[in-house]
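Below is a filled-in request sheet from our internal design queue. Each sheet records the structural input a requester submitted and the sequence that came back. We keep these sheets so that new team members can see what a complete request looks like end to end.

REQUESTER: design group, bay 2
PRIORITY: normal
MODE: inverse folding
CHAIN LENGTH: 208
BACKBONE (tokenized):
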């Protein structure tokens, strides 16, 4: 059933993009605000209709997975469908698929990883999930400043899991910083005062 729903959502997302462009309704949406490497990526994907169907389908799957932690299959499918079909959700899909909309996907992935950390009893698997979260947060900060808020539950989770160990938190913070600095992006924290003070550079790609 989930596969059938995913296919239907994929078709809907593709059709939705096609209708908006063919009817020349782009003026109804807000202007695109993209920077750095995201702008380069946008040049290749913004006109590909199936990308929109794929991403809205992925959002449905991730939302369903989170809901399944507490709800049964029927309610999880229903609530996930309500979420992806909401007005604000569809409004962000067209003009900002690689920024504001993609932020939702990253948010959902991070949420799932945090939940799995506290459900896992295997230290190795917990470490892997923290490494993944560190990389995703570092990458996410090149897209939106909003992800800074994730540093709070991230640090709380680390100290809850590792308790008196300071080595692991430092390693994870270094991964976040390194991931953020090596990605060529402008318009988030990159040209802001913190990065200038830390590196003396106006753009993090200048490190390479």
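RETURNED SEQUENCE:
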């Amino acid at each position: 059933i989930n596969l059938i729903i995913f296919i239907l959502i994929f078709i809907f997302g593709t059709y939705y993009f096609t209708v908006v462009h063919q009817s020349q309704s782009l003026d109804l949406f807000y202007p695109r605000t993209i920077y750095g490497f995201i702008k380069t990526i946008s040049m290749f994907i913004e006109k590909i209709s199936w990308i929109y169907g794929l991403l809205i389908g992925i959002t449905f799957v991730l939302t369903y997975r989170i809901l399944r932690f507490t709800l049964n299959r029927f309610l999880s499918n229903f609530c996930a469908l309500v979420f992806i079909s909401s007005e604000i959700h569809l409004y962000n899909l067209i003009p900002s698929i690689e920024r504001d909309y993609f932020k939702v996907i990253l948010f959902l992935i991070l949420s799932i990883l945090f939940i799995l950390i506290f459900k896992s009893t295997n230290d190795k698997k917990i470490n892997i999930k923290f490494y993944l979260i560190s990389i995703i947060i570092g990458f996410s900060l090149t897209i939106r400043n909003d992800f800074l808020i994730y540093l709070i539950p991230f640090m709380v989770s680390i100290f809850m899991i590792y308790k008196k160990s300071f080595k692991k938190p430092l390693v994870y913070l270094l991964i976040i910083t390194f991931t953020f600095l090596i990605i060529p992006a402008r318009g988030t924290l990159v040209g802001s005062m913190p990065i200038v003070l830390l590196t003396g550079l106006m753009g993090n790609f200048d490190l390479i």
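SHEET NOTES:
- The radius of gyration is 19 Å.
- Residues 14 and 50 are 5 Å apart (CA to CA).
FILED BY: M.R.
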